[in-house]
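User: structure tokens for this one?
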Amino acid sequence: MKTELELKEMVKEKYAQIALQEKESNMSSCCGSGPCSTEVYNIMSEDYSMLDGYNADADLGLGCGLPTEFALLAPKQTVVDLGSGVGNDCFIARKIVGELGKVIGIDFTPEMIEKARQNADKLGFNNVEFRQGDIENMPIAANRADVVVSNCVLNLVPNKRAVIKDIFRVLKPGGHFSISDIVLKGLLPIELQNAAEMYAGCISGAIQKADYLNYIQEAGFTQIKVQKEKAIVVPTDILQKYLDGTELEKFLHGETGIYSVTVYAQKPAACGEPEGNCC
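Assistant:
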């Protein structure tokens, strides 16, 4: 089993490669982890092209949901995007918060940050900023953000509890998040759990849905709800790389499921503020 540091370095190396790939290569793979399937279609990602603010140059096809669509964004807000890639969700958020708002993207892959900054420069956005950093310990002051969004990123982080706690720290009292991610129902076969491709591809790093929601509640969030859920089907030719015939049949017809979920949660408001519950 790899250490947390080894997993982080593996993900950083893989996503540095992804930053330089064409979108079509990412979309025919497992979250961009490589051209692993002969069934050329996007396994997880949603179609962003109908959203206002969409910019094709910033879309690498790596997501597993549309968190910005569910995030209840409003003008003048400060929005933080975790694992911002080359800027896709940031630019859509900026369309909503407007010139008086602020959008901050956090990513720990230098190649992603550089490409995102180039995209922001081309679009002439002065209120969209990209910072290199670890989302377990974000380079952002406490109580800074009105909204946090993220798309298919927490599953890549070994210490998910730390990320959720840091989201709580950077949100203002009364602020909220909307995050799309991959979760499990039932246990993955050990061969998939240990596969580097499956980890960089967002699957083997996923945790049980119940644990995921519990971490959010433990961090102090309220108003927790699943805004959207859909099953993820991994193509058979990918699974055959790791599972023999018997194991494959057991997995395909068993109770284990892989799901994309978009989850909303709120940081409690401070005393005296609307919906504050301590007075």
